[in-house]
From TrEMBL:
GO biological process, one term: iron ion transport
Domain TonB-dependent receptor-like beta-barrel stretches: 250-792
Protein name in UniProt: TonB-dependent receptor
Pfam families according to UniProt: Plug (PF07715), TonB_dep_Rec_b-barrel (PF00593)
């Protein structure tokens, strides 16, 4: 029935490729590299969404979160802000601490790793989405031809290569929230065989999250980045080509602050949260208003990468390609993780005047160090060939990746403190046993090696079979010096190992670690190291049948794999194993051209058998435990994911173009293992530190960030005007996303709110802020977005283009993720969507 529903609606991706002049071509002309070689989109047995640079510009796609808005099956985890959102495809989510489930590739190379305190955007952040040939979103496991982990899929960013034309453009944009953006690209053929392309992208915009306090920045979720790209193409001989791309991006913003939307009246912190919610309401605080307590709030990251590709056409039937890269990722992240402003009315203590609020838990960096500081090296040697009769095409190769720390990643996380200046240790502890500044010193190493081969054999002119296999060896090592700074005497810091079980300091059930003066710190006492290793085969087998040149039918079986990991912070959850998925797909791709109508219709059905899935869980510490609460990764057991994806497009008389995309996604966690029973008792020496372990999914329920329905409809009208006037067009995109769970940690309280136990009322379990309609805080509501654009290209025959864009036209208000502090800290916070954005753009082209 669902498949029939999908077939009954003309649905598609919102984009098609463009020719050199930017005019839309039919789907037969869309060239993709989903199988590491150039092919027509309609000939590739993979569900793919494709966007060119014109689509990206018209839709004002700046970062990964924007890209996901237009792509069915693609979701993002924006827990650490829209600029650092990580991808999820078909329910395969990257949680904090895990390697990505969706690989992002720029010019055939993965992004530099960012193993810090937050997810890093993994290569599709700001500064990446300009001067591109196209963006390809591949859905389903791609673990045969692509390195690293691609259980969910892959996102390919294909930059424009230097060409033989002297040309370029300058583009400027201005919009609300004082948005200013300038792009410039220059292509110079220094000779027939040596060509250079240089591009720069600079953007600034004020934040749309307003700070109600006078602490730190006045707004958050701002944009401030610069990106530069240099490409050099050297055709050394007719058969030998060398292509180098150098990328640089620096972003420096205020970061993000969550919105407190409810509190737990049964928590010891409930009264503080109630006071905050009432205070924000008293000053007219609305949806995009928050209370910040971090005077040093900042989110800065720098990434750069050099990619060199050498291609040798050894013969008519053999091509040898070598791809080597080096890149670095560095990050400083300072922000409140819960969004709390826990106000103390009198603002004093027996020890003198203090700041009138409690810091629950803040993310920071130790002075002089970064949250992330890593380098990544990759090397791939690839052979591509075909048989003399042309029936067999094949490729094989080897892959190596090594990520190393450039120094210690040092977090600085105040917890339950009043601080005049935490970086000068001027703090007063609320709890002698828990109030502290966590300062873990960490180093991570990643290594991945693989061998692969894949070939397609044409059994007949209409029937082909493809088979490929890859074997991958992964390892992740972690050095950890876990120190904590305590304040048993106010403003007098002392330190000890904040994870005594990890450091062997629990002897006969007693913590033998001692608090010591702040200087010097003996890191040897708190040192620990662990390594997670995993190796697995992955493969793909598919059968492709083309009854005509315009119809492709395919069936495939793909095995995907994601490496295990290590985080020694939380025993016994310091190691987790690899996950694997078997994906079965049936699909069809159809192109049509009939009179004034042309377009395509693509349909894919898939079933995923998902085992040992890596799921994030919230850890709730026992009263008096030596460890604070936190999050950890567990292997869930078994899940299943099935659904359909429909992509289609129709153009009528080259005047009206209708595109759409639809995904039905049905996910279910079938088994959950490795989760201990609740132990709601005070901690005793020798016992587990954890009272509860709460996964983000529940058995029988859907997986996180997996909306059941996702629909994108785009209409573009090319207005008939004389050629001397230019080219006029208007476009509109409607995006519907069904409700989806971000977490199940608040289910118990929500159940009691809906069905209060005898003698209680709903408000005895959850109290909501006025701006938040009562609903499960972990359930993101269904959303409807409308975006518009208008374009006037080649104005009166000149090389000048002008455009207008508006996103979230109706100014919808909705959360995009949840923090999960309800059980631990007495409040629940959510990350917020972007409000209405609009602007104008002027582009001047020059050259050939």
């Amino acid at each position: 029935m669902l498949a029939a529903t999908g077939m009954g609606v003309v649905l598609s991706t919102p984009a098609m490729a463009q020719d050199a002049e930017g005019e839309a071509l039919d789907s037969n002309a869309i060239i993709v590299t989903a199988r590491r070689t150039e092919e027509r989109l309609q000939d590739v047995p993979i569900s793919i969404s494709v966007y060119n640079q014109e689509d990206i510009s018209k839709r004002n796609i700046v970062n990964s979160a924007d890209l996901a808005t237009y792509t069915p099956s693609l979701s993002v985890n924006s827990k650490f802000g829209p600029e650092k959102a990580s991808f999820s495809i078909r329910g395969f989510v990257q949680d904090l601490g895990t390697v990505p489930s969706v690989g992002v590739y720029f010019a055939d190379v993965v992004a530099p790793r960012g193993g810090g305190a937050t997810t890093s955007g993994e290569g599709a952040g700001v500064g990446s989405l300009f001067d591109l040939q196209n963006v390809q979103v591949l859905k389903g496991p791609q673990g045969t031809l692509f390195g690293r982990n691609t259980t969910g899929g892959a996102v390919l960013l294909v930059p424009k290569k230097p060409s033989g034309l002297l040309e370029g453009y300058v583009e400027g944009s201005y919009g609300n929230y004082d948005m200013r953006r300038v792009q410039a690209v220059l292509n110079v053929p220094l000779s027939d065989t040596f060509k250079v392309r240089l591009g720069v992208d600079r953007m600034k915009r004020d934040g749309y999250i307003n700070n109600l306090t006078d602490i730190g920045p006045s707004n958050f979720n701002d944009t401030d980045y610069i990106a530069a790209r240099l490409s050099i193409l050297a055709e050394i001989t007719p058969d030998l080509e060398n292509y180098t791309v150098a990328n640089y991006t620096r972003s420096d913003t205020n970061g993000t602050v969550p919105k407190v939307i409810a509190y737990n009246p049964n928590s010891g912190f409930g009264s503080f949260a109630a006071r905050q919610i009432a205070g924000e309401a008293s000053v007219g605080g609305g949806w995009w208003d928050v209370s910040n307590t971090d005077a040093y709030a900042r989110n800065k990251f720098t990434t750069w990468q050099i990619i060199n590709t050498t291609t040798w056409q050894a013969s008519d039937n053999l091509t040898v390609k070598n791809i080597v890269s080096y890149g670095q990722f560095q990050e400083i992240a300072r922000q409140t993780l819960e969004g709390e402003y826990y106000f103390i009315p009198d603002g004093t203590s027996p020890y003198g005047t203090i700041n009138p609020f409690i810091n629950l838990i803040h993310l920071g960096n130790f002075p002089g160090f970064r949250n992330a500081d890593e380098e990544t090296i990759t090397e791939e040697l690839q052979f591509q060939g075909r048989s003399s009769d042309g029936r067999l095409t094949w490729q094989a190769g080897g892959y190596f990746e090594q990520a190393n720390p450039l120094g210690y990643n040092v977090q600085f996380t105040p917890f339950l403190l009043n601080c005049v200046d935490p970086y000068q240790y001027q703090c007063f502890g609320i709890s002698p046993t828990s109030s502290s500044i966590s300062t873990p010193w960490q180093k991570r190493w990643y290594r991945s090696r693989a061998l692969y081969a894949q070939g397609t054999y044409n059994l007949t002119d209409q029937l082909a079979v493809t088979a490929g296999a890859r074997y991958t060896w992964d390892s992740q090592s972690y050095e950890y010096d876990g120190t904590g700074i305590f304040f048993e005497t106010p403003f007098v810091p002392s330190w000890y190992c904040n994870n005594p079980a990890l450091n062997g300091l629990i002897v006969d059930g007693v913590n033998t670690g001692q608090k010591k003066p702040i200087a010097p710190m003996d890191f040897e006492e708190c040192y620990a190291k662990d390594t997670a290793k995993s190796d697995k085969p992955t493969w793909t087998i598919d059968l492709e049948y083309k009854p005509t040149n315009d119809i492709l039918l395919f069936a495939k079986w793909t095995r995907g794999y994601r490496a295990g990991g290590v985080n020694p912070t939380y025993i016994p959850f310091n190691l987790w194993g690899p996950e694997k998925v078997d994906t079965y797909e049936l699909g069809t791709k159809t192109s049509f051209f009939a009179g004034m109508f042309k377009g395509y219709f693509n349909l894919t059905g898939f079933y995923n058998d998902f085992r040992d899935q890596q799921i994030q869980a919230t850890l709730v510490a026992k009263q008096g435990a030596p460890l604070l609460g936190g999050t950890a990764i567990i292997n869930a057991g078994k899940s299943r994911i099935w659904g359909i994806e429909v992509d289609a497009s129709v153009t009528i008389a080259d005047i009206l173009k209708l595109d759409a995309g639809y995904t039905y996604l049905n996910t279910k966690l079938q088994e959950l293992s490795g989760v201990p029973e609740d132990e709601l008792v005070p901690w005793e020496p020798g016992a587990s530190s954890w009272a509860r372990v709460v996964p983000t999914a529940v058995v029988g329920g859907p997986l996180s960030l997996s909306p059941k329905h996702r629909l994108t409809l785009t209409g573009t009208l090319n207005i008939p005007v004389p050629e001397s006037v230019g080219k006029l067009s208007v476009g509109a995109t409607f995006v519907y996303t069904a409700k989806q769970y971000a977490s199940r940690a608040d289910d118990g309280a929500w159940e009691n709110y809906q069905n209060p136990p005898a003698g209680t009322t709903p408000e005895d379990w959850i109290v909501f802020a006025d701006v938040m309609p009562p609903r499960n805080p972990g359930l993101m509501p269904a959303t409807n977005l409308l975006n518009l654009n208008a374009n006037w290209d080649s104005i009166f025959g000149s090389p000048v283009d002008a455009s207008f864009f508006m996103t979230n036209v109706t100014n919808e208000k909705f959360p995009v993720n949840v923090v999960n502090g309800f059980n631990s800290f007495g409040l629940e916070s959510q990350l917020l969507n972007a409000p209405r954005m609009y602007g104008v753009r002027l582009k001047v082209r020059f050259g050939s």
